[in-house]
Each structure stands twice: as structure tokens, then as C-alpha cells.
Specification:
Blueprint: H1 2-12, H2 31-35, H3 49-52, E1 64-80, E2 89-105, E3 113-137, E4 149-173, E5 178-204, E6 209-236, E7 240-247, E8 251-268, E9 277-288, E10 297-306, E11 311-320, E12 324-329, H4 347-350, E13 353-357, E14 360-374, E15 377-388, E16 400-402, E17 409-420, E18 423-439, E19 459-476
Parallel strand pairs: 13-16
Antiparallel strand pairs: 1-2, 1-19, 2-3, 3-4, 4-5, 5-6, 6-7, 6-8, 7-10, 8-9, 10-11, 11-14, 12-13, 14-15, 15-17, 17-18, 18-19
């Protein structure tokens, strides 16, 4: 009986997470570069060069400091029938998104060399969804009760992801046309997931009230530090520019996390023999070592200035290699705090946190058009588009998995910059949309004891959109 309960557990409780946790291009950086959709690997000319292609720092003559941010962002996460018929998973979020603070530094004692620093919010996302069902439904088998029971079930998920990169850059202008550059990055990632599923059925057996219940709670919270490098080459022929860059796979430096799971199965009869069984599995481990991995990636881009309009047309691509599957938090082996170890291997399996990433190929294009001098400075318009495909891989084991969504995101951007001698100001709009068929993690319709008081998971339609305001300021000194 207990083995049947655990088999049902593996089938019914998959991870539920967010819309952007498996997308590498969730954000772009630098005011002009952002509004061009990041299509600037070949021709980036602002302080975001340390991220897109550090070799381009060798062709920037003005030392500068820059701050840019998506000041306000509204995003909606929506899965129609995500937890059953007319039970949508829906969340509307409003938040401030920091983006980039960076600078370029030139020194007289190092002619031909340029230096830069970068502090950026690589990922900054949170999500919370909740759905509940109350009904009269035939959940319990006829061997124990004929007819319907009072049934309630609820799903609640809270997710928060923040990742910051800090980098120091150096570029060496090898010739008038060619430059080499490198950025050493350190990455700080914090991720928190809380997922709860509760279901219960209550009925009167002719003498007393009986109840069957399932409560499943998962909590993950960790911080992880890693290092990696970006190396680039840049060619500048005036009207035509091109560049390539490679980002190394990350090297783990330090990490620490907490993971806990609490599963209570009370009076469930999965084999319909008329006898209910109960099972409790509960454990928590704190201060466990962690490891988060980011992939090798290769990017390339080109930019062409069309005369006499000075229209700048640019395009970039980036290929992220697959990382595969790995353990983010590895618990100590041993017995459960509560529960039997011979069911699924003890706490090592029950608390293990895993992540899986596939390869991704993204494309970006952009156009800049100078409008000329008006009132207080030179005005330039920018338009951009880029893809942001998911690296998600389907999961098929009983570990806790981070990353659940499979949809691909498409981004459109537009804005203007105003340049005046010592400074540049930019403002724009960023819109993101994505839609795809997704697997139901939890179905509250058609609950049965064989599925631990839940229905058989199916498929649903997911939609994600976001709109943000881009604001940036650069000071030249």
C-alpha cells in the first residue's frame, strides 16, 4: 500500500515555477543597447560593452559613467485551465527592475588600453499564483463510500529569482581596426520557491465522519556565487563594424541553501481494497552546499551605417550550449526526520534539488536613426526585436526541479536618446509576449484516490506578457 502511495506521489507532484527562470535573454542592458534589443555585439558604443563585447571598449574614446533601468514593469503570467477546467493560473505583477550601472575608464599611463566596470541585474523576477476548488465530487471508492464527498483542494506557489553580475573589463586596441577585450564576471544568484498542494475529501459513513487528505509542501531557498569570463574581438571599419564573443561556463565558488519537504497522506486507498492507509514523509536540511551552472555561449554581430542618412542597422546572434542535468542542492543521505527510508531512498532522494538546461539559439535585430539637432541636443530613434527561447527540458524523476516553463518569448522595443555634449538621456518601451502549450502540473478536476485526491494531469495553454519603461542616463567626463 505504501509503495502505491509513493508511486502516485511521483506521478502527481511536479515542480511549478515561473515564466522566465529558463530564459537567458530575459533582460537587455544599457540604454541604447537595450532599445536595440541587444543586437550590438558588433557595434556597441556605450558602457554596456563590458557585457555584450568587451573588445568594443577599445574603440570608445570618451570615459563615461552610465545608469540604466527598466523603471517600471508590469508582467502577467497566465495558464488557461492550468489547474483544471476554468481554474486558471493567473498572476499580475508590478515591480521596479534595476538593470545596469557601468563605466568606461581611460588612463594616460596605458595608451591603447581601456577599462570598464559593470554591475547588472541579470535576472530579476518574482511570481505568485494560487487556485482553489470546492465541490461535491465522487472521489472515494465505492468500497468505503457510495456517492459524492465534500471535496476541497488548493494550489499555492510563490517564486522569486534574483541574479546579479559584477564585472571588470579590459580592452586592448591591437590596430586601428582590431581590438581584443575580456571581462571577468562574478555572479550572485538567490532563488526561493515555496509550493503547497492541499486536497481533502470528507464524508459520513453512517456512523461518523471520515476524511482523506493529502498535504504536500516544498520549500527551496539558496544563494550561490560563481565566476566566469567573456572574451571578445571587434573589427571597426567605420561604416561597418563586426564582433564575436565567447562566455565561458561558470566556475562554482560558494553556495549555501535550505530545502524542506513535508508530505502527509491520510486515509487514502489507492488500490481500492476498502482499507485506507497513511504515510508521512518530512525532512528539512539547512546550510547545504549548492552549485548553480551557466553555459558556454558564443555570440556574433555586425553593424552597418547607411550614408547619407546615418541609419545604423545591426544584428546579433548568440548560441547557448546545453548544460544538461545537475544537482543544485545535494542533501546528506540518511533517514527522514519522519517517515520510512526504504520507500524512495531516504532524504537524499526526497530533498534533492535538480536543474536541467538545454541549448538555445537567439537572434536580435535593431535600427537607429538620427533625427538631428533640436532645442537642447541631438535626437536619435531606436527600434529593436529579439527572441528569447526557453532552455527547459522535461523532468521525469521524483527530485525537486527548478524550472518549469517551456514557452518562448518574443520582445519588441522602441525609444529615443537625447545627446548633449556632456551627457545622454534615453527613454523607451519594452514589450514581451510568449504563448505555448504547457503540461499541467496539478489538475483539480476529476480527483481520485489513485492520484492522491487529484485529477490526471493534461495540457494547458500558457501566455506571458510584460511591458516596461526603459530609462537611462550617461555622463561623459
Amino acid at each position: 500500500m505504501q509503495k502505491l502511495l509513493l508511486t502516485s506521489l511521483v506521478l502527481c507532484f511536479a515542480a511549478v515555477a515561473s515564466a522566465q527562470d529558463q530564459n537567458y535573454w530575459a533582460q537587455q542592458f544599457g540604454t541604447r543597447s537595450h532599445m536595440l534589443g541587444g543586437a550590438v555585439v558588433g557595434g556597441v558604443d556605450d558602457t554596456s560593452a563590458g557585457y555584450y563585447n568587451p573588445a568594443r571598449l577599445g574603440f570608445i574614446d570618451n570615459p563615461s559613467l552610465s545608469v540604466s533601468a527598466t523603471v517600471y514593469q508590469i508582467n502577467r503570467y497566465f495558464i488557461r485551465d492550468g489547474a483544471g477546467k476554468d481554474r486558471d493560473l493567473d498572476a499580475l505583477n508590478w515591480r521596479v527592475i534595476p538593470s545596469l550601472a557601468s563605466g568606461i575608464h581611460l588612463f594616460e599611463f596605458a595608451p591603447g588600453h581601456s577599462f570598464g566596470h559593470t554591475i547588472m541585474a541579470r535576472h530579476h523576477y518574482g511570481n505568485s499564483v494560487s487556485v482553489r476548488r470546492e465541490a461535491r465530487d465522487d472521489v472515494i471508492g465505492d468500497a468505503r463510500n457510495v456517492g459524492d464527498e465534500d471535496y476541497t483542494a488548493q494550489l499555492t506557489v510563490d517564486f522569486d529569482l534574483q541574479e546579479y553580475w559584477m564585472g571588470l573589463s579590459w580592452a586592448w586596441r591591437l590596430t586601428d581596426y582590431l581590438s581584443f577585450g575580456a571581462t571577468m564576471f562574478g555572479g550572485l544568484r538567490t532563488e526561493k520557491l515555496l509550493a503547497d498542494v492541499d486536497a481533502r475529501a470528507v464524508w459520513f459513513n453512517g456512523t461518523v465522519f471520515e476524511a482523506a487528505a493529502v498535504e504536500n509542501s516544498t520549500y527551496v531557498n539558496y544563494v550561490d556565487v560563481r565566476a566566469f569570463w567573456k572574451l571578445g574581438l571587434a573589427l571597426d571599419l567605420g561604416a561597418f563594424k563586426a564582433g564575436v564573443a565567447v562566455t565561458t561556463q561558470s566556475i562554482h565558488l560558494w553556495g549555501q541553501g535550505t530545502v524542506s519537504r513535508d508530505l502527509e497522506i491520510v486515509n487514502i486507498d489507492p488500490d481500492q481494497d476498502g482499507n485506507g492507509a497513511s504515510l508521512v514523509l518530512n525532512d528539512r536540511q539547512e546550510d547545504r552546499p549548492t552549485e548553480f551552472r551557466s553555459p558556454w555561449s558564443f555570440s556574433a554581430g555586425a553593424e552597418l551605417t547607411v550614408l547619407p542618412t546615418k541609419t545604423r542597422i545591426c544584428a546579433s546572434v548568440e548560441w547557448f550550449l546545453p548544460v544538461g542535468a545537475w544537482t543544485v542542492i545535494r542533501p546528506e543521505s540518511g533517514a527522514f526526520f519522519q517517515g520510512a527510508t526504504n520507500l524512495i531512498g531516504g532524504s537524499n532522494d526526497f530533498l534533492k534539488v535538480r536543474h536541467t538546461s538545454n541549448g538555445v539559439f537567439n537572434v536580435a535585430v535593431g535600427i537607429s536613426q538620427p533625427f538631428g539637432h533640436w532645442l537642447i541636443g541631438d535626437w536619435t530613434g531606436h527600434w529593436g526585436f529579439y527572441t528569447d527561447f526557453s532552455s527547459n527540458v522535461a523532468k521525469h524523476d521524483d527530485s525537486i526541479h527548478l524550472g518549469a516553463t517551456e514557452w518562448d518569448l518574443y520582445n519588441g522595443l522602441t525609444g529615443i536618446t537625447l545627446s548633449s555634449g556632456e551627457s545622454e538621456f534615453g527613454i523607451g518601451v519594452h514589450f514581451t509576449i510568449g504563448s505555448d502549450s504547457v503540461d499541467q502540473n496539478i489538475n483539480l478536476d476529476g480527483p481520485t484516490e489513485q492520484n492522491l485526491l487529484l485529477g490526471e494531469p493534461g495540457s494547458a495553454r500558457g501566455v506571458y506578457w510584460a511591458i516596461g519603461i526603459i530609462v537611462g542616463y550617461t555622463y561623459f567626463f
